[in-house]
Design a protein that fits this description.
Two copies of one chain form a homodimer.
Chain A (H helix, E strand, L loop, with lengths): L11 E5 L6 H7 L2 E2 L3 E3 L15 E3 L3 E5 L12 E5 L8 E5 L2 E2 L7 E10 L4 E9 L5 E10 L6 E10 L4 E10 L14 E9 L2 E8 L5 E12 L2 E3 L1 E6 L3 E10 L4 E12 L8 H35 L1 E4 L2 H17 L26 H13 L2 H13 L1 H10 L23 H4 L5 H16 L4 H20 L1 E3 L4 E3 L17 H24 L1 H11 L3 H12 L5 E2 L4 E2 L23 H4 L2 H6 L8 H7 L6 H11 L10 H11 L3 H12 L16 H15 L3 E3 L2 E4 L9 E8 L2 E8 L2 E6 L5 E5 L2 E5 L4 E3 L1
Parallel strand pairs in A: 27-31
Antiparallel strand pairs in A: 1-9, 2-3, 3-4, 5-6, 7-8, 7-13, 9-10, 10-11, 11-12, 12-20, 13-19, 14-15, 15-16, 16-17, 16-20, 18-19, 21-28, 22-23, 24-25, 26-27, 28-29, 29-30, 30-33, 31-32
Chain lengths: 767, 767
C-alpha cells in the first residue's frame, strides 16, 4: 500500500493536515462530477506548488495527432483525448497586496478536505499564515449540480484573524489552458469571444479540429461584514476575464464570495446562443441561491443512494471504499445521454483519453443495469449501435470486407484512436464483449426488443468479422485465430488465445441464434436487416463452419485450456516466488521479459470462465483458477474483481475478500502509485460486481434472480438493492443468513442457494 | 520497375533532360562521398523546387529524443541519427539582379548529369533561359577528394549566351540547416563562430548534446574572361557566411568559380584548432589546384577499381549496376577508421540514422575482406569489440546479468538507438551475426590472432546472452527461445524462430571451441580473459546444456525446419497467387494482416542455410528453398542476394539472374519507390556476393578458395579479383569456362568444381 492518509469514514472522504506531496493525489481523490462536467480538486486561489489542473466537459474532445516511432499501415491518424477545459473555478485572493498561496504560506493549520459523498459536495478549510504575517482562515465549499448539470457553485469564506487588512477577491475564467498529455504541444482551444457584464463573465471558445463550441461562464457576488461588495470593472486579456471585489476587512471579519460557473455547449444549445443559454442558467441558479442549490444537490444524491448504495456493517474502510466507487461512477455517467460513455478515468484526469473501452461492456453495464434501469443500459448499447458504420469502416481499413465490423479499442466517436499495433490491430477480443453485452442485457432485463431493433445488426457485423478473421489451418484441420492480443496484455501477437477463440465461436453462434429468433418473431425487422446487410444463408453456413470447427488449445496433462498456443513452453514459476523488488513487473521488467514470462496482467482464460460460467462445471473453474491465478500479477485495475467473484464461487471467501480489498480501495490507498493522474473509474464497477456477484452470488438463470450469499469474516452485514426488470429488491446478508425485501406491487420468485423463494411486495423474507 | 531514366553506360551514371519530378531521386543517385563526408547531388545555386538537402560528416550524429506512442520499459532514450551538416557547396548566382534558379527558368535544354564512377567526379551541365530572358550555359564539376578527405572541390563554369550582363557569384557556407527526420524539431547545431578572411570563410558549429565540434570551411576564386575577379567584402549572418564575385560578362563570355570546401572535425584535430586545420588543408589543395586535385582523384579511384571492379561483358545495364554498387560502397566506407562503420543509407540520406546494423557483419564484411584487405575487415570487427561494454550494459537494461552482451539493433556509439519493442528487444538474432563475422573473418583471412586478442571476449558475452535468453521448457524437455523477431521482420514476437535458435546454439558451441583453442594456443590471453570475465567451467557446462538440448521446430510432413512454432497454421498461399495490386504488402496491408500471413520479408530460415551451408546437404537446401522462397516477398533490399546465391548453388541460373537484377539495380531503377530518400548502401555488398559467391560459387573450404563458376545466359563474360590472404587472384568466367590469374610471388592451390588447381604467379590457368 502506498498511502493511507484518507481518514476512514462511512460517508466521506477526508484528508487532514496539509502536505504538498499529497496535493496532486488529493486533486484526483476529491474530484467532483455530475455526468456532464467534472472538476479535479484544484484550489480556487493561486497555488504555485505542483498541481495537475483539470476541468472537463463530457463529450468535448480533441483529436491529437498520433505520435508513433515508426508508422504502421492502418494506424489511426489521431488519438482523441478528453480536453482540459477552460477554468471556471478560479478565485484569486490578495490580502494587503500579497496573493494567498498555500505553497508560500509560512504555516498551514487545520487543513482539511472533505468529499461528502452522501450529499455530493466538497469542502476545503484551513488556517494559514501568509509571508506578510497575515493569518487567514478559509472554508471553501464546492459542488457540481446534478439538477442543473451545466453549473457548479462555490462558496469561498475568508476570515482574517490577526489584523485589519485590504482584501481583493478576483473570480476569473481562463481559457489559456493546456493538456499535460498533449502529443505535439498543439493549441487545443481557440478563444473567440470574451464578455464581461456586471457580475458575470463569459468566454466563448471552440476546440480546434473538432470545433465543439463552448461558453465558459461565471457569476460572482461577495459580502464582507455581511454587506454586499460591488465588483469593480472587469478585466479582460486574450484568454481571461476576471472580476475584482475590493474591500477592507477588519480583524475577525469575514468575506464571502459566491461563484456560479460552468459550461454551455453546442451539444445542447444552438452554438450561436451559448451566452444566452449561460445567462439563463445563471438567472435560474442565482435565484435559487447557493444554499437552495445545495439542498437540491442533497436531494438528488439521496435519490441516487436510495437505489445504488451498498451498506457494509463492521468494516468502515470497506464501507468507505465501496461508496467511493459507487459515488465516482455516478459522478461520471448518469445514463441520460446515449452520446456519452464512461471513460476509464472519468472526469478525474487526462490519461486514456476519456474515451470508451470494452470496460463499459464488460464491467460497467451490469452496474448501471442493476442500479439504474434498463433504459440506461440500453443507452450504453445504443452508443455502439450508433458507431456500427464506423466499426465497419475500421474493419475495412484492416482489409476486412462485406460489412465485417471491428469495434475500436479506444474511441470517442466510433473511430479508432489507439495506435499500438499489438492493441489496435490485435486486441480484437473487444469485439466479443460488445456482443456479450447484448446477450447480458437481454438476460438481465428480458427486453428482447433491442435485438431486432438494433442489436442484430451489430451481431451480424461482429460475426462477419470473426468469420473472416479466423483461418483454416490445414495442419490442424481446424480454424485458428492467429496474431492476437488477449485481455492479458502481457502477451502480444499470440496464436489461438483461448478466450478470443472462444468468444469468436460464441459470437457467431449467438448471431445465428438471434437471426433465427428475429426471423420468427420479428419478420419485418428481419426483412429490413437482411435487406440492409445482404446476408445470405450461404454466408451464415460459412460462419457456422468456422464456429463448429474452432480450435482450442488444451493441455491434457494439466486438464486446462491453454491461454494460447505454446503457453506451456514458458518457465512456469508462480508469482509468489518472484522477489518483491521486481514488482510491479511493468515498472521493473523490460517488455520482452514480460512477454516471454507466464505472468498474467488480468483475467484472460478466466475472463471466459466469468462470461460463460454456465458452459463449465465448478470443477473446471477450480482447475483453471488454480492453474492461472498463481501466474496472475493483477497489474490491471480490472483484474481483482473477476478473481474475487470466482474465488467466492469456489467458496474461498478469504481470497475473495483480499481481492475485494484491492479493488475497492485501489485509488484511496493508491495501490498502483499513480492516483495523481486520475481515478480508475471503470474498474469501480468491478468492485460493485465483487460484492453483488461475488459475495452475494447474484446470477440470472432462466429469467430469475439467484443468490448464493456469503459474508466476509470481518463484516457483520452488507446490503444492496437490485432493479430487476423494474422491480426493486433489497438484499441483506448477515452472519445469520440473508433476507430479501421486494418493493412494488407484484410478487417475484428468486432462488437462494438453489431454493426457490417467493417474495411478496413489502415483505422481508429470511432465507 | 519505377523509373528507367538512367542512361545505360559502363562507367557512368547519366541523366539527360531536366524533369523536376526526378530532382530528389537524382540527388540520391548522383551522391558523392569519400568515406569521411558525403554530399547529395543538390544544386550549388538556388533551387526553389522540391529538393532534399543533405551534407553529411562521418561519425557526427545527434541523439534525437525518442518518439513513441506508449513508452515501454527498456526503451533507449534517444535515437542517434546522422546529421544534415552545414552546407559547404552553395554558390548562388545572380544575373542582372535575378537569381539563377532552374525551377523558375522558362526553358532548360541539354540538361545532363554524369556521375563518373571510374574517376570519381560528378558533373552537371545545362542551358537555361531565365525569366528575364537571359540565356545561360553552365557546367558544374564536383568531387570529394579521396586523398584529402576533408575537402571537396567545385568548378562552376557559367557562360551567358545572348547578351552582356552583370553577374554575381556568391559562394557561401550555411549552418542554419535542419534534419527532415527530426523527431521534435530540435535544433541540432549550435553555431559558435563565423569567420570571413579574404577568399576564405569558416563556420564553427558543434552538435547539440553530442558536442561534436566541426569547422565548415570554404575558399573560392573566380575568373571572368580569363581574368581574376576579386571577392568583395564578405557578408555574415547568424548562420551564414558568403563571398561575392561581382563582374560584367560579355555575351559569350565565361565566369569560372573554383570553390574548395569541407569540414575539419574534432575526431581528427584539436577542437580549438579546427580553423587552423582548415586553413592548412585549404593551403594544400589550393596549391595543387582544381585540375591537379582531380588528377589525384582519378588516380585514387583507379587504385580502388584495380582491385574491386567486377567487369561484365554483354550486358551494359548489369555492368552499370554492379559498378554503381561497388562505387557507392567505396564512397561510404574505405576501411581506414575503426570508429566508423557502414550505415544502411551511407551518406545519401537521413533515414535509418546512418547507424550500424547487423548488415555490416552479414553483408558488408565479405565484400571488404575480399576487395580490400584483412586489416579493413578487422577494423570492422574491432568496432564491435570497442562496443562490448555497451552491449553488456544494454543486456543489463533488459534484465540479463553476469556479462551477457546484447549488441544493439541500431547504434552509433554502442548504445541501442532503436525503439520498437519487437525489434529493439526481440530481434536478437543480430547478436549471432556479430559472432558469425568473427568466424567468417578467420575462415577467410586465416588470421587467428583477432580471437585471443579481442574476439573471444565478444564471443563469451554473446554466449552468455544466449544461455540466459533460452529457457527450459518442461513441456518439450528442451530449451526454447520465446518471444523473438527473426530476420523476417514480418513476424514479431514468435517462439522458436529456427534461425535464431540455430545461431544461438552455434554461438555457444563456437565460443566453447574458441575457449579451448585459446587456452591451448594463447595461455596468456586465456588467463587475461578468464580473469576479466570470471568465466568458470560450471558456467560453460551450463551453456553446453542449452546448446546440446536446443529445440528446433520441424515438419515431418514437409521435411523442413519451420521458420517458427505454428508456421503451418497459416494460410499457405504462395506469393504468386497474390493480386499485384496488393503488393508491396508493407504499403498495402495492415500490420496484423502481414503478421498472420506466411509472407517473408527477407531470408530467414534460408539465412541460416546461407551462413551454415556446410551443415546441410544440397538436397536439404533445395527442400527449404522450395518451401520458403514461394512465400518470400523480398520487400527488404537484403533479400534477393541471399536467394540469388542459393538459386545459383541449386543450378537455377535463370532464377539466380532474376534475383541478381533486382538487387543490382534496386536504386538505379527504384524498385522500392523511395530512392529519393537515399540509397541502399549495405545491400549493395549483397550484389557483389551474388556474383562472387553466387555465379562464381566462391567458398572458403579448409583454408582454400573454391569456385563453381556459372555464367548468366545473357552475359558473355565476367571477371573480378579477390584478395585472399594477401594474394590477389583474378577470376574470369566466360562461355567457354573460367580462368584464374594469380599475382604475387607464391603459388596457391584452389579448387574449381571440386578439382584441385595449382596456380603459379603470373600464369593464367583455364579450368
Amino acid at each position: 500500500m502506498n498511502q493511507d492518509y484518507i481518514v476512514p469514514d462511512e460517508w466521506s472522504i477526508i484528508e487532514e493536515g496539509f502536505d504538498k506531496n499529497r496535493v496532486k493525489s488529493s486533486e484526483s481523490l476529491f474530484s467532483i462530477g455530475n455526468g456532464a462536467m467534472g472538476q479535479r480538486a484544484n484550489f480556487e486561489e493561486t497555488y504555485s506548488g505542483p498541481t495537475f489542473q483539470g476541468s472537463y466537459i463530457a463529450g468535448v474532445y480533441y483529436p491529437d495527432k498520433t505520435r508513433v516511432g515508426w508508422w504502421k499501415n492502418g494506424y489511426p491518424e489521431y488519438f482523441a483525448k478528453v480536453l482540459n477545459a477552460p477554468n471556471w473555478i478560479g478565485i484569486d485572493i490578495s490580502i494587503d497586496g500579497e496573493p494567498l498561496d498555500l505553497n508560500t504560506c509560512t504555516k498551514v493549520d487545520n487543513y482539511r478536505r472533505e468529499l461528502n459523498m452522501k450529499e455530493g459536495w466538497y469542502q476545503r478549510s484551513f488556517e494559514a499564515t501568509m509571508p506578510n504575517g497575515i493569518e487567514v482562515k478559509a472554508v471553501v465549499t464546492r459542488f457540481l449540480s446534478l439538477k442543473y448539470d451545466e453549473v457548479g457553485a462555490i462558496k469561498y469564506e475568508l476570515e482574517v484573524l490577526n489584523k485589519d487588512v485590504g482584501v481583493a477577491a478576483m473570480p476569473y475564467l481562463d481559457s489559456g489552458i493546456k493538456n499535460e498529455d498533449s502529443n505535439w504541444d498543439d493549441q487545443f482551444w481557440n478563444t473567440t469571444n470574451i464578455v464581461a457584464d456586471g457580475s458575470r463573465g463569459f468566454i466563448e471558445a471552440h476546440t480546434m479540429k473538432t470545433n465543439f463550441a463552448t461558453c465558459t461562464f461565471m457569476m460572482a457576488t461577495a459580502e464582507a461584514h455581511n454587506e454586499q461588495v460591488k465588483p469593480s470593472s472587469p478585466q479582460k486579456t486574450d484568454t481571461k476575464v476576471s472580476l475584482t471585489f475590493d474591500t477592507a476587512l477588519k480583524k475577525g471579519g469575514k468575506l464571502t464570495v459566491i461563484k456560479y460557473g460552468g459550461y454551455t455547449v453546442d451539444r445542447n444549445h444552438d452554438k450561436n446562443k451559448l451566452i444566452e443559454a449561460a445567462n439563463e442558467v445563471l438567472d435560474k441558479v442565482s435565484a435559487i441561491g447557493f444554499d437552495g442549490l445545495l439542498q437540491t444537490q442533497k436531494k438528488a444524491w439521496a435519490d441516487i443512494w436510495q437505489m445504488s448504495d451498498i451498506a457494509i456493517k463492521g468494516d468502515v474502510k470497506a464501507q468507505q471504499g465501496i461508496r467511493f466507487n459507487i459515488f465516482q461512477l455516478n459522478q461520471t455517467y448518469l445514463g441520460t445521454d446515449s452520446r456519452l460513455n464512461i471513460g476509464p478515468k472519468g472526469f478525474t484526469g487526462e490519461k486514456y483519453g476519456g474515451s470508451t473501452y470494452w470496460d463499459t461492456e464488460a464491467y460497467c453495464i451490469p452496474f448501471y443495469m442493476a442500479t439504474k434501469n434498463q433504459e440506461v443500459a440500453r443507452r450504453l448499447l445504443k452508443y455502439r449501435y450508433n458507431h456500427l458504420e464506423k466499426a465497419i469502416e475500421n474493419a475495412q481499413k484492416l482489409g476486412f470486407e462485406n460489412g465485417a465490423a471491428l469495434y475500436p479499442m479506444v474511441t470517442m466517436n466510433g473511430e479508432e484512436c489507439h495506435n499500438e499495433w499489438e492493441i489496435t490491430f490485435e486486441e480484437i477480443h473487444r469485439n466479443g464483449a460488445i456482443a456479450f453485452a447484448i446477450y447480458n442485457y437481454f438476460r438481465f432485463t428480458g427486453d428482447y426488443s433491442y435485438i431486432p431493433e438494433m442489436g442484430l445488426e451489430v451481431l451480424i457485423g461482429i460475426a462477419r468479422f470473426w468469420h473472416q478473421r479466423a483461418n483454416f489451418s490445414e495442419h490442424k484441420g481446424q480454424y485458428v485465430i492467429l496474431g492476437v492480443t488477449g485481455p492479458n496484455e502481457y502477451e502480444n501477437n499470440v496464436n489461438n488465445n483461448w478466450y478470443t477463440n472462444y468468444i469468436a465461436k460464441w459470437c457467431i453462434e449467438y448471431a445465428i441464434e438471434q437471426l433465427e429468433k428475429v426471423k420468427e418473431g420479428y419478420p419485418d425487422d428481419y426483412k429490413r436487416i437482411i435487406g440492409k446487410t445482404h446476408l445470405t444463408e450461404t454466408e451464415t453456413e460459412k460462419w457456422k463452419k468456422v464456429a463448429d470447427n474452432m480450435y482450442f488449445p488444451y493441455s491434457k496433462e494439466h486438464g486446462v485450456y491453454l491461454q494460447q498456443d505454446g503457453f506451456l513452453d514458458k518457465e512456469l514459476i508462480p508469482v509468489s516466488e518472484l522477489p518483491k523488488s521486481e514488482r510491479p513487473l511493468n515498472q521493473k521488467w523490460s517488455w520482452d521479459r514480460i512477454l516471454r514470462s507466464p505472468y498474467i496482467k488480468q483475467a484472460d482464460t478466466l475472463q471466459g470462465f466469468y462470461f460463460f460460467e454456465d458452459h463449465f462445471t465448478k470443477e473446471e473453474l477450480r482447475k483453471h483458477f488454480d492453474f492461472y491465478e498463481p501466474f496472475t500479477v493483477h497489474e490491471s485495475s480490472l483484474s481483482p474483481c473477476v478473481h474475487s467473484i470466482q474465488a467466492a464461487k469456489l467458496g474461498r471467501m478469504d481470497q475473495a475478500y483480499q481481492f475485494y480489498l484491492r479493488t475497492s480501495r485501489l485509488d484511496l490507498d493508491d495501490y498502483n502509485k499513480e492516483v495523481e493522474e486520475g481515478l480508475h473509474i471503470t474498474s469501480m464497477a468491478g468492485t460493485w460486481m465483487s460484492i453483488v456477484e461475488g459475495f452475494a452470488g447474484m446470477r440470472i438463470i432462466e429469467d430469475k434472480l439467484n443468490f448464493t450469499p456469503q459474508l466476509p469474516e470481518k463484516w457483520e452485514a452488507y446490503s444492496f438493492k437490485i432493479n430487476f426488470r423494474n422491480r426493486i429488491l433489497k438484499v441483506t446478508v448477515t452472519k445469520e443468513g440473508s433476507s430479501y425485501e421486494l418493493t412494488g406491487t407484484e410478487e417475484m420468485s428468486i432462488r437462494v442457494n438453489g431454493q426457490r423463494v417467493v417474495l411478496k411486495p413489502g415483505e422481508t423474507i429470511q432465507a
